[in-house]
Amino acid sequence: MANERTLTIALNTLPRFRAAIACEAYERFGSAAGILAAPAGELTALRGIGPVLAGAVRTLAAERVGEEEQRRARELGITILTLDDPEYPERLRLIPDPPRVLYRLGELLPQDGDGIAVVGARAATAYGRTVAERLGREFGAAGVTVISGLARGIDGCAHRGALAGGGRTAAVLGAGIDRIYPPEHARLAAEISSRGALLSEFPLGSDPEPWHFPLRNRVISGVSRGVVVVEAAVRSGALGTADMALEQGREVFAIPGPITSPTSAGTNRLIRQGAGLVEGARDVLESFPDLAVLLPAADAGPAALAGLSDPERLLLRAIGASPLPIDDIIRVSPGPAAATAALLTALELKGLVRQHPGKIFART
Amino acid sequence: MANERTLTIALNTLPRFRAAIACEAYERFGSAAGILAAPAGELTALRGIGPVLAGAVRTLAAERVGEEEQRRARELGITILTLDDPEYPERLRLIPDPPRVLYRLGELLPQDGDGIAVVGARAATAYGRTVAERLGREFGAAGVTVISGLARGIDGCAHRGALAGGGRTAAVLGAGIDRIYPPEHARLAAEISSRGALLSEFPLGSDPEPWHFPLRNRVISGVSRGVVVVEAAVRSGALGTADMALEQGREVFAIPGPITSPTSAGTNRLIRQGAGLVEGARDVLESFPDLAVLLPAADAGPAALAGLSDPERLLLRAIGASPLPIDDIIRVSPGPAAATAALLTALELKGLVRQHPGKIFART
Questions:
Q1: Percentage of chain B surpassing pLDDT 70?
Q2: CB-CB under 8 Å, A272 with B277
Q3: What does the pLDDT look like over B79-123, one tens digit per residue?
Q4: Which residue in B277, B278, B287 has the most chain A C-beta atoms within 10 A of its own C-beta, making it the best mutation to test that interface?
Q5: Any residues with CB less than 8 A from the CB of B143 and at least 6 apart, and which?
Q6: Which residues of B touch A280 (CB under 8 A)?
Q7: Cα–Cα distances in Å, from A326 out to A293, A317, A345, A348, A351?
Q8: What is the ipTM of this complex?
Q9: Are B181 and B205 in contact, with CB atoms under 8 Å apart?
Q10: φ and ψ at A85, to 5 degrees?
Q11: Interatomic CA distance for residues A16 and A38, integer angstroms
């Protein structure tokens, strides 16, 4: 009998077995094995599962498909995470309809959980491109991971800016990780996977179907702390990401733009509806007290931060918002283990880090 | 003995006898005559009055100066209003430090009391000019008077837009009405005086001194229902007008712009501080239920408005926000008296106008 993980991965290869539909099925039948064993009549009783999808579930050679998918992923160096995997992004796990399966090429570090999404129009203007690149660079330089969608226009500029700023970035794709879209972003994707990760819920070989993108957008906001929309037309995917972000309880920010520019109509509307008007990374980070610590010391609020050395500040960044065992801190820190331990002690004495039982450290 | 009006006009010719200083003096001594008769020691006891200004008051040949100023104004076709004159703009009378004397070239109609100020940078960009002109045109077409400062840049475009939209406009000057500044706006000023009014608190012949402009700004917002800032640098007169407007309880609106444009830094900041983000006249008018009636019928909210004829809508505009005697309504309406009376009855039957005792009509 194949294990649950393999069956889950197999079910996820069915194109329409996603989001709310998958969540409902797992909830009703308890597991992938339970779903695969369910009578067709009980499957079609669920909202969103018609006879075609029920038939596909019933006839799925789940064990073989799941094992083959895992073998191909291994060959490509891609990690497949299921919902209960400890490496599955914590924030994403908590959205209403998280993907059961997440493909990852590259690595996610603890601080990536505090990433900020920077998204926007594919048909961006020169203004939008400039701003996206600048914003990505500012976040990157502050040690804040930039999340985006690898699309043409704003997304690509945001990723590039993060890399140029020396930071990390992750791209959530609307196709299989082995099917980089758009093709001209292949090289950018490779860089991202070495300084962050490519993520996708779609099985290997999936084309970038139009209906994938709203699903992809919920993952972009799902893995992020907040979402900045740089440019967006009034009816656009980027506004969809903003809606999704609000549903998920994420803060939404927008870059204002000329009222004469159609690609700023969406962002100006967001601001009118209450999104934070943003002129730079600082405006975003100041909304999150625990991220504001990442701003250059000269401008940091609390007096304690002003006196930090660069290695101390880098270590504070590395710790991120959630508590972290010392081994992980040492792993993600640039210096040798002994130096990191000494810095941790210094930060503890300055009241910026607290040690919890089991050598787990957290920002105060 | 010269009358109070003449003495008030004379006192107002003293360059520094303005705003808070004048208000305090009138409050302390009760009248222009009282101020002119006050001992120097009592004058200098007031905040803002030093020995030089006290000396100027004491040695003022008030009767002669006041009569000469009125004679010159008459020759130029300029009306001089004092604070208690029935034609003095009602809103302006109610600000904390209204000018005691207001020069007017042209005419103010009741609906001008519902005017909206459109102001901004002198060093405006092409974007700002386009938007100011468009906004002025939209207000003009909706029958909303555009108030501005006749300055280069945004102000001039706003006035021109209002005129192009077939509307009314008023300019508040930082110099004497007979000293149009900037000189290249002489022709625009003439047009404004025939389709609205030029207003100034400064005596005839006054130069456009830099310190006049903050005073002028309080009058711009003072005569207006709300203020829209189109473009403004972070330290700029237009932001001063916005501050003044907030102190006077006026609503403040701002046009968003590129975060890369210094002349949008001020407006973007205003929006961040709570000013309404505006993309067109509609956004402003919708903030004032009684002005929203001026929007084209197709989009108007209440069903009753959709069925209005053009003459009925024009009459509703003419009535403005405050109750108006039928004689005034007939005077400001384009058609013959009998037609206006019939239209009034129709509007009354539709529940949009109510008749009060003394044949005074008001919008419901």
A1: 95
A2: yes
A3: 999 999 999 999 999 999 999 999 999 999 999 999 999 999 999
A4: B277
A5: B111, B167, B294, B314, B317, B318
A6: 259
A7: 20, 14, 12, 13, 17
A8: 0.76
A9: no
A10: -70, 135
A11: 17
pTM comes to: 0.80
Q: A residues 71-130 near B, CB within 8 Å?
A: 127, 130
> Does the CB of A277 have a partner CB in chain B at under 8 Å?
yes
Tell me what percent of the residues of chain A surpass a pLDDT of 70: 95
pLDDT at B131: 98
Contact A259 B260 (CB under 8 A): no
Angle, vertex CA B116, rays to CA B113 and CA B119, nearest 5: 135
Please judge whether B272 and A268 are an interchain contact, meaning their C-beta atoms are less than 8 angstroms apart. Answer: no
Q: What is the dihedral of CA B185, B189, B195, B197, to 10 degrees?
A: 140
In chain B, what residues touch A126 (CB-CB under 8 Å)?
A: none
Which residues in chain B have Cβ-Cβ distances shorter than 8 Å to A272?
A: 276-277, 283
The average pLDDT across B323-352 equals 81
Residue B296: pLDDT band (50, 70, 90) is low
Residue ranges of chain A with pLDDT lower than 70? Answer: 1, 296-307, 310, 320-321, 334
Mean of the pLDDT values across residues B154-158? 98
Model pLDDT, residue B343: 84
Distance separating alpha carbons of residues A232 and A251, to the nearest angstrom: 17
B257 touches chain A (CB under 8 A): yes
Secondary structure (H, E, C), B52-106 = HHHHHHHHCCHHHHHHHHHHHHHHHCCEEEECCCCCCCHHHHCCCCCCCEEEEEE
Residues of chain A with C-beta less than 8 angstroms from the C-beta of B255: 259
- Reported as a single tens digit per residue, the pLDDT across A207-231 is 999 999 999 999 999 999 999 999 9
Question: Which residue is associated with the tokens 């690149």?
Answer: A133
**Dihedrals φ, ψ of B289, to 5°?**
-50, -35
- Chain B residue with minimum CA distance to A269: B277
The answer, for A263 touching chain B at a CB cutoff of 8 Å, is no
Mean residue pLDDT across chain A: 91
**Residues A263, A233: contact at Cβ < 8 Å?**
yes
CB contact under 8 A, B257 and A256: yes
Chain B residue numbers touching A125 (CB-CB < 8 A): none
Nearest to A257 among B131, B256, B265 (CB): B256
**Is the CB of residue B266 less than 8 Å away from at least one CB of chain A?**
no
Bridge partners, residue A101, by sequence: A82
